[in-house]
Structures are given as structure tokens and as C-alpha cells.
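Aim 2 progress. For Ribulose-phosphate 3-epimerase, the working sequence is reproduced below.
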Amino acid sequence: MMVKVTPTVFVKEEGVYRERLELYEAFVDRVQLDVADEEFCLAPTLSVRQLLEVPSILARDVHLMVSEPVTHLPVCAEYGAGVVTGQIEQMSDQKEFAREAERLGLKAGLAVDLETELSELNWSVAKEVEQILVMTVAAGKEEQKFNRQALEKVRQLRNKGFSGEICVDGGVNEDTVVFCVRAGADLLAVGSAIWKATDAKAAYEQLSRLATAAPGKLQ
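Predicted C-alpha cells for this construct:
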């Protein structure tokens, strides 16, 4: 399976968001919108509606780092979001989240925070979702140091037979790409390593090349 790189958008101001969309529309077709409330950060991001109501040619996945992610699914469906992933730590019921996403015609994903063990996943639900997102930093904060130990969760998911998309999110850059790919990830969510680069397109293309050229996955 080809490993893909998708830029993330973690913003608190609409002007910055529009600039970021314009930047990415020039060289990608898919981004991940990060939505965080006060449970995750002192200065919350723009809301799901504020993000999705801005027109864009990009396919937009949504990573919900919010209390009770299920309550945000109707807005995601209203605006035609792609994969919608919620932090399991903030869910009362993982099954309810997945079922509601399906009812609304959305592709569901489950996200596991840095300190959360895979045993917290409801496997009967997790094995059927579109995506499992593994955080390699603490959710809701930018520019943290990559935690390589978290990649053990990726290996465990593959060993358990998860056949969906495994996304690694947090601290992914030119130095850490190879570890993510070798662990079994097939989607890399990248923030500042792209948008802070002098040439964002070149940075994205280099990360994509590194992901494609990375050595075979570890068993």
C-alpha cells in the first residue's frame, strides 16, 4: 500500500485558515482539519462549522479533539467532510460514534492519544472503522517532540489484523517518516514540517518521497 502524506490544519483565526487553504490547494487534494476545544488547549481552534463553511476544492478530513465528538458529526455531514476521526478519550460510547457516522453517510475513524493504551479501543468497533489515528504527541498542541515509542501501537494494530488506514499524527518530519512507515502506517498527518517550510510544496514532495522510499515495514 502506498504511504500518503496529508497536511494538517490547526488554526485559531479565520484569516490564517484561508491562507493555509490557499497554500495547500496549489499542491494537494486532501487535508486534515484539527478541531480542538478547551478540553485540549487553552485557546481552542475554529469550530467544525467555521472550518467547513469556508469553500475549498480540497477534500477535508476532520480530527475531532473535542468533548463528545459524536455531537459534531451532523455538521461534518452537512458540509461533506471526508474521514471524521474522534478522540476515544472524549467519547462516552465508541459504538455510538461509529454508528452515527455511518447513519450520516460519513467515514468514521477513532483516534488514540499519546498516553492511551490500545486496550481502550473497543475492538469490535475499531476493526470496522475507516481509520485509526495514532497520536505520537499529546493531542491538541502543536510542535511537540515526536514520541517514537507510540509507534508500537501501529505495529500492534497491524498484528491484530486491522486492514483500514492507520494514520500517524504528531511530530512527523523528514527525520521521523521512516519510523512511521516501518511501523506500518499508511497515512502521515503533517503540520509545521510543511507549512513552516520556506517552500511548502517542496517540503511536502520531499516527505512523500521519503515515505515512498522508506525500508519495508517491520514485522
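The first helix runs from residue 14 to 25. This observation will guide construct design in the next reporting period.
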